[in-house]
Amino acid sequence: MTDTSDGWSRVREELMFSIVVDRPGDPGVMNYRELPDPIVGAGELLVEVAASGVNFIDVYQRKGTYDVPVPFVPGREGAGTVRACGTGVNGVSSGDTVAWASGVLGSYSTLAVIPADRAVCVPQGMAMDTAAASLLQGMTAHYLTHSTYVVRPGDSVLVHAAAGGTGLLLVQMVKMRGGRVIGTVSTPEKERLAREAGADEVIPYEGFDRTVRELTNGDGVPVVYDGVGRATVDGSLRSLRTRGLLVLYGAASGPVPPVDPMRLRAKGLFITRPTLIPAYLHDREELLWRATSVLGWVSSNEIRVCIGGRYPLADACRAHQDLEGRASSGKLLLIP
């Protein structure tokens, strides 16, 4: 790396700190540590991280549920200022602000190397913590409502964890598309947040499938967006109407056990387990469609992002504890 610009020189004079996972385990396995300066390669950006998104996929990787070679620096989402560009990078310059939600790890850090083709420019005037809070969960809500099951006007939709980071965005996008939202929550405060986001009906988890039947005149809903997993999957199946679709996009309560296909037979039900990457970010064109849609809606206040907590980078352990313990609402961020 031979860039001698003032910006790069300032970065070199600073210390780089990251969260490092040396072995799978509970939040205590994450350590705040100084690391060598990263090297930016061809087609890559060196970014000074302003905010890193905390997501359940980070938890799964830390626990070893998703196999990641150790040691590793967690985090796949963030926003910050470009400090250097590798060879072959076009359309981005040092000093630009970018956001990313790529499959590349390393965002729990003061500096990160990001593939240029996974980064998008932050709209002018948007705060970088807002950009970091919007992209991964926003694009998740986008593909769920615009691709996995295309919500139609008048559809009644069940959204689990309706006051979570993704849940609040799902509520708003279903409403944008003309749907009716039935949301599950666990506390009165989360009920308030879900209603403020536009949920039509907000119900507790206990007996939710019976309540859904009552709210739909016994028919059930055409789709359930379920990021909770083990604790809700059975009730989610019972909440579906004939030929309904259960979309298992997460497993906050634990992995879903195998489902006997014969359970689906009587009503012709469907189950899918989608992921944003690579299935719904197939190429650069699809990334730009989803990212510019989400950031545009946030910038114009058509979609509101709820930041539920900001933690110093060194407090990543506490952020994970709050996320896993369902002690938070909205999006959690690490601020280096």
Automatic annotation (TrEMBL):
MF GO annotations: mRNA 3'-UTR AU-rich region binding; NADPH binding; quinone reductase (NADPH) activity; zinc ion binding
Domain Enoyl reductase (ER) span(s) in chain numbering: 25-334
PROSITE patterns with a match to the protein in the record: QOR_ZETA_CRYSTAL (PS01162)
GO-annotated cellular components: cytosol
Keyword annotations of the record: NADP, Oxidoreductase
Keyword Iron attached: no
Name of the protein described by the UniProt record: NADPH2:quinone reductase
Organism, scientific name: Amycolatopsis cihanbeyliensis
